[in-house]
Design a protein that fits this description.
The protein contains 9 helices and 5 strands; from the N terminus they run ααββααβαββαααα. It is an alpha+beta fold. It folds into 2 domains: about 170 residues, 2-Layer Sandwich (Beta-Lactamase), CATH 3.30.450.40; about 50 residues, Orthogonal Bundle (Arc Repressor Mutant, subunit A), CATH 1.10.10. The protein has a 5-stranded antiparallel β-sheet, sandwiched between helices. Helix 1 packs antiparallel against helix 2, helix 2 runs antiparallel to helix 6 and helix 8 crosses helix 9. The N and C termini lie far apart (about 85 Å). GO terms for molecular function: RNA binding. InterPro entries: ANTAR, GAF, GAF-like_dom_sf, GAF_ANTAR, WH-like_DNA-bd_sf. It comes from Micromonospora citrea.
Length: about 250
């Protein structure tokens, strides 16, 4: 993409602002494991941090179907939602795998159904940048301006870097969510599994704690003793089952 050269001092300022944005975005998403929560944080941070951008939205597809949408302003959520139709800059960015720019929607012939709705909501310019999340989810981040001819090559560069960084962070969010789900399934299976389940019951009785906390106690003991969890459970059950001397 051809980005016009600008005053060096202005370009340095833009680099610093973009670096600050990416740091804030990383801090906001680093511990999140819910995809929708991550999208909400992403659009809020981008809206607040990118100078000249009045609103921000995100459009997500999973296996070709709408998978999620987020908007920094609920009034504009429909502009990012593909259930209202594929006629949008976000869908063009996703389909073509390239950044889409319109800095003056009043002169925009594309998206004849989408553009009038956007203008009614006060949108005058838009940048949509494709975001690759993982093998199942792709999307686009959408930056909206409330003034025509406001979006510059600097905004395009910021959008490109934001989309790249957001893709990495969102992929990590989805990975953490999958790990948490697997851990939950493992916990559920352990709670009802033979000797481990019996050991959990013993600890619950002794400590008056819930099953999840009892499982944590077993795990901590296994880690401290450096032996398998099931062996710890077997030892505990054997100990409490051993007849007492009379």
């Amino acid at each position: 993409m051809n980005l016009e050269m600008r005053d060096p001092a202005v370009e340095r300022l833009g680099v610093l602002e973009t670096a600050a944005l990416l740091r804030e975005l990383t801090a906001g998403l680093i511990a999140v494991d819910d995809f929708d929560e991550a999208l909400a944080a992403l659009v809020r941070i981008a809206r607040d941090a990118v100078d000249g951008v009045s609103w921000c939205g995100f459009t997500a597809l999973r296996a070709g179907e709408p998978a999620g949408v987020a908007a920094s302003d609920a009034r504009l959520a429909g502009l990012d939602d593909l259930r209202h139709g594929p006629d949008s800059p976000a869908m063009d960015a996703i389909r073509r795998r390239e950044m889409i720019l319109s800095d003056h929607l009043g002169r925009e012939p594309r998206w004849p159904a989408w553009t009038p709705r956007a203008r009614e909501l006060g949108v005058r310019g838009v940048i949509s940048a494709p975001v690759d999340v993982d093998e199942q989810v792709i999307g686009a981040i959408n930056l909206y301006a409330g003034t025509s001819d406001l979006l510059t090559p600097g905004h395009q560069l910021t959008a490109m870097l934001l989309a790249e960084h957001a893709g990495l962070l969102l992929a990590a969010v989805r990975d953490r969510a999958r790990q948490a789900a697997r851990a939950g399934e493992l916990d559920s299976s352990m709670l009802g599994d033979g000797v481990v389940g019996q050991a959990i019951g013993v600890i619950m009785t002794q400590r008056g704690c819930p099953a999840e906390e009892a499982l944590d106690v077993l795990r901590s003991a296994a880690s401290s003793l450096d032996i398998p969890l099931r062996e710890v459970a077997d030892r505990l059950v054997s100990t409490v089952s051993r007849p007492r001397d009379t």
